[in-house]
Amino acid sequence: MGIFEDVLLNAKAVVGTVGKKAGEVVDISKLKLAAADLKSELSQKYQLLGRITFEEMTTGKDYSKNKEEIAGKIRELKEHLESVNDMIAVSKKKIKCGFCGAYNSKGAVFCNNCGEKLVNDSEDQDHMSPDDVIDFTEDNFADDDLL
Q1: Which of 116, 81, 77 has its CA nearest to residue 96?
Q2: What single-letter DSSP state applies at residue 75?
Q3: How does DSSP assign 36-71, residue by residue?
Q4: What is the per-residue DSSP string for 116-136?
């Protein structure tokens, strides 16, 4: 009976590890989907800004208030995208260079991009879960959110 119990315990440990890894893959996938949605929304805002700017140039009308509103949404989307990218990097055991913003492996001492000394303080930071990111994105950036 001892061998059977050992096999059963080892199988449970393997299943637990596989389940945890699968959960991490799902979380990263959710974050990547949220990032793709944010990039798409950013692209739409940039296109809208370009159309309004062209309209302003060709008609002589003043659309500065509309452009400022769109620019504000672009800034907000970019900040949120950066946050999602940071969460993806943390999930993949990467750290972000405080100088140039490049992502590096967690054990790196110096940035692979700029050579700056890296500070590894990602364990101390609180992050939103991937589900919270998706909920936030859906609640704040609807598909019909164009001005």
Answers
A1: 116
A2: H
A3: HHHHHHHHHHHHHHHHHHHHHHHH----HHHHHHHH
A4: PBP---GGG-----HHHHHHH
Find the mean pLDDT for residues 121-133: 51
pLDDT category of residue 110 using cuts at 50, 70 and 90: very high
Are 103 and 39 in contact, with CB atoms under 8 Å apart? no
Encode burial over 54-64: b for 16+ CB neighbours within 10 A, e otherwise: eeeeeeeeebe
Q: Other CB atoms closer than 10 Å to residue 143's CB: what's the count?
A: 10
Both tokens of 140, joined, read 């704040």
Q: Return the bridge partners of 110, or none.
A: 117
- The reported pTM is 0.60
C-alpha 36: how far from chain center? 9
- Give the end-to-end CA distance of the chain in Å, rounded to a whole number: 70
Model confidence at 19: pLDDT above 90: no
SS3 147: coil
